[in-house]
Specification:
This protein has 360 residues and is α/β, with parallel strands linked by helices. The protein has helices at 5-8, 19-31, 34-41, 45-59, 75-92, 114-131, 147-152, 215-226, 240-248, 262-267, 294-312; strands spanning 64-67, 70-73, 107-112, 136-141, 158-162, 170-184, 197-198, 207-209, 233-236, 254-257, 271-276, 281-289, 320-321. The protein has 3 domains: 11-92, Arc Repressor Mutant, subunit A (Orthogonal Bundle), CATH 1.10.10.10; 107-175 and 283-321, 3-Layer(aba) Sandwich (D-Maltodextrin-Binding Protein, domain 2); 177-282, D-Maltodextrin-Binding Protein, domain 2 (3-Layer(aba) Sandwich), CATH 3.40.190. Helix content is 36%, strand content 19%. Helix 2 (19-31) packs across helix 3. The longest helix has 19 residues, at 294-312.
Length: 360
């Protein structure tokens, strides 16, 4: 997604964002209602609306969608809200040096999404107990809300994130990509076919979705906004287990990666149909602080190896490994040949391929 020009170029005095405008925007975006935001800020709704228009004019883009029930952040607005929250947490973060694992009492905390936790946690715990017997492992449910700030605040040592933002303080390693799809009961009308669904077909489907700041909700909102589609959550629930149970009862559908319903699909309890036009694709990555303790980095490496193995063997069905670009082949000099005639090392042609032979 392309950010507004005012956020991309170096700011001039006219481009400097006022903290008051950002506070008013954050209050409106979080509450979803200008009246409630004004009440929280102890000002009038007209003052909130005026500051929001001023902020949108200065950035040259719409940040909130106004509708009869209140306001909803646009994809750009959601990004700005995340940045504002990150800045506030950075300002409030302690300035003392990064603690070591020993300082933390030998505890390493991992935030991992419930959608993939069942697949990863067991093999990771086996390795932790074998290789780092003195480490106490603290597993936390990563609902996709504020995990980056929890990393920056040292409330979490490492995390598995989806489509994480680029922050200088974090080391982020993308591992694999995965498609999302519509999950429904076998009795649903869409369950009779196995072809991909268009996003537009979901406009009238009662959806059970997580909160607005969850990664799945953000991804879905961005895709719907880009195509002018309105999708409303009939029910909001952050618990994956509860959501799947409601869907299994036939009271609605949800959007999840296929791995989250692998067991239910095998039993025939739920049906998964991928979404196309557009393809809802997310990137899973491991994130740690750049100044993390060595044991945290070692466990992060072990976690990455496990995820790679699950995808490579097909256990993580539908996942595609993120290929890191190989470094360019170094030019090697040929003996007794001037440097200006250096050439690449000769590669043997594959069987059945054409070989070009240099003439004199």
């Amino acid at each position: 997604m392309r950010l507004p020009e005012a956020l991309l170029r170096a700011p001039s005095r006219a481009d400097v964002l006022e903290l008051r405008e950002l506070r008013y925007f954050a209050a409106a975006a979080r509450s979803g209602n200008l009246g409630r935001a004004a009440q929280d800020l102890n000002i009038t709704p007209s003052a909130v609306s005026q500051q929001l228009r001023k902020l949108e004019d200065s950035l040259g883009t719409q940040l909130l969608i106004r509708h009869g029930r209140g306001v909803t952040p646009t994809p750009i607005g959601a990004r700005l809200l995340e940045r504002f929250d990150t800045i506030l947490h950075l300002l409030n973060a302690p300035l003392d040096p990064e603690p070591t694992a020993a300082d933390a009492g030998g505890t390493v905390s991992l935030a991992i999404p419930a959608e993939i936790g069942a697949l990863i946690v067991a093999p990771l715990l086996v390795q932790v107990r074998s290789r780092w017997p003195g480490v106490t492992f603290d597993l936390q449910d990563n609902t996709g809300i504020g995990v980056e700030t929890r990393l920056l605040d040292r409330q979490v040592d490492l995390a598995v994130l989806q489509d994480p933002p680029e922050l200088e303080e974090l080391r982020v390693v993308p591992l694999l990509t995965e498609e999302l799809g519509l999950v429904m009961s076998p009795a649903h009308a869409f369950a009779v076919r196995n072809l991909p669904l268009r996003l537009r077909e979901l406009a009238d489907v009662p959806l059970i979705l997580p909160g607005p700041r969850h990664w799945i909700r953000r991804l879905l909102a961005r895709a719907a906004f880009q195509r002018g589609i309105r999708l409303d959550a009939a029910l909001q629930a952050d618990s994956v287990a509860m959501t799947k149970e409601i869907v299994r009862s036939g009271l609605g559908c949800t959007i999840l990666p296929g791995i989250a319903v692998r067991d239910e699909m095998a039993r025939g309890a739920l049906v998964f149909r991928p979404i196309a036009q557009p393809v809802l694709l997310t990137t899973h990555a491991i994130a740690t602080r750049r100044a993390a303790a060595p044991v945290v980095c070692d466990i992060a490496q072990a976690l990455g190896d496990i995820i790679h193995s699950l995808a490579a063997t097909g256990t993580w069905a539908g996942a595609q490994l993120v290929r890191t670009p190989e470094p360019p082949t170094r030019l090697e000099p040929v003996q007794d040949v001037p440097p200006e005639t250096w050439r690449l090392p000769r590669q043997e042609p594959a069987r059945g391929s054409l070989e070009f032979v240099e003439g004199d």
